[in-house]
Amino acid sequence: MFIKQIEMRELRMRLLHPFETSFGSTQDRHVILVKVTDGAHAGWGEGTAAGGPFYSYETWETAWHVLRDFVVPCVIGREVREAGDFGSLVRGIRGHNMAKAGLETALWDLEGRIRNIPLWKFLGGARERIDCGVSIGIQPSIDKLLAKIDTELQEGYRRIKIKIKPGWDVEIVRQVRAAFPNIRLMGDANSAYTLADVDVFKKMDRYNVMMFEQPLHHEDIIDHAELQKQIETPICLDESIHSADDARKAIKIGACKIINVKLGRVGGHREARAVHDMCRDHAIPVWCGGMLESGIGRAHNVALSSLENFSLPGDVSASKRYWLEDIIEPPVQVSGEGQIGQSARAGIGYTVKEDLIERLTVRSQVFTA
Ligand code: OSB
Ligand code: MG
């Protein structure tokens, strides 16, 4: 593939509802899009950085800077044999995986379209329908949370993830479990605890929670291994895992029993698949995380989730939970059984609404070979 043109865009989008985690609340969501063309076909990717350096150190501002000044110059005008070769082109750039993933995933879409094959098949996926869960932010009250869970269950979602933080944990989990005795329930702490809080997790151990996601520090695996020894509920790592090698080490020391894979966090499809393979080889199930994506990032998540070891429902849910109007057509839709079907069309398998993208754009830059 000759990389003839790369276009970066920053979109200003607004979430239908604010999303609150242990590190704050978001409603204005800027989206970094990357469009890459070989002259005949175009591929699209999304960089999923947030407005502030709270989930990770990246922000949409740093992602723009790193893409424009470092990542794009490594790729523009190059003959790239296949999308999987992206990593070798940007080998010298440390970190900034969300920025890299914006372009990396665009190359996978492009290659899928050139080969006229759906991305999920091209990645080697087998799941024609993926199981969906939802991630529900911290709510103003327990009653609002219970009502929201009820709505999502009626929509068909197969697993409910709630956000927990000190003071919004044991009692919340107890009440949710009392109201919904049989649902698949999990809690995501986004690193809000330390090992000193082990008793909080021991108390929550009673409520048949599928997993606690990233309870401890975002760079830690040692303390997670210690916590896992002391509790029954599986620990799932999110923030701590940036590569297949991170996954190998975490599994080796017993820091987790499940891993959440996010394209942005690991730098794109190639590494996401490597994390998946590493986990599969150690009998560790994975699921696909979400970063409040627009339809483009969402479509990439749907395709990734087709790989066999994505055996747990992910945070990949319908466009309409986030956006009044999504930037792809059709929007990502979830069936009454809580599943998303794979597209039969080439690449990400959705039509990109370029006119809407143009209206939402706050800045753009084009690089031509
Ligand atoms: O920790 O999984 C997370 C959103 C932003 C940053 C981090 C996380 C999340 C979510 C939302 O949980 C998942 C989604 O619905 O896209
Ligand atoms: Mg998480």
Fold and architecture overview:
This protein is 34% helix and 21% strand. It has 369 residues and is an alpha/beta fold. The chain has a 7-stranded parallel beta sheet with strand order 5-6-7-8-9-10-11. Helix 6 (170-179) links the parallel strand 6 and strand 7 (185-188). Helix 9 runs parallel beside helix 11. The longest helix is centred in the first third of the chain and has 19 residues, at 97-115. It is globular, with a radius of gyration of 20 Å. It starts with a strand and ends with a strand. The relative contact order is 0.17. Magnesium ion (MG) binds next to loops.
Give a concise summary:
The chain is 34% helix and 21% strand.
Chain-wise SSE layout:
Blueprint: E1 5-21, E2 24-37, E3 42-47, H1 60-75, H2 86-89, H3 97-115, H4 119-122, E4 129-131, E5 134-136, H5 142-155, E6 160-163, H6 170-179, E7 185-188, H7 198-204, E8 212-213, H8 222-230, E9 235-237, H9 244-252, E10 258-261, H10 263-266, H11 269-281, E11 286-288, H12 295-304, E12 328-329, E13 339-341, E14 351-352, H13 354-360, E15 361-368
Parallel strand pairs: 5-6, 6-7, 7-8, 8-9, 9-10, 10-11
Antiparallel strand pairs: 1-2, 1-15, 2-3, 4-13, 12-14
Helix pairs in contact: 1-3, 9-11
Bound molecules: 2-succinylbenzoate (OSB) and magnesium ion.
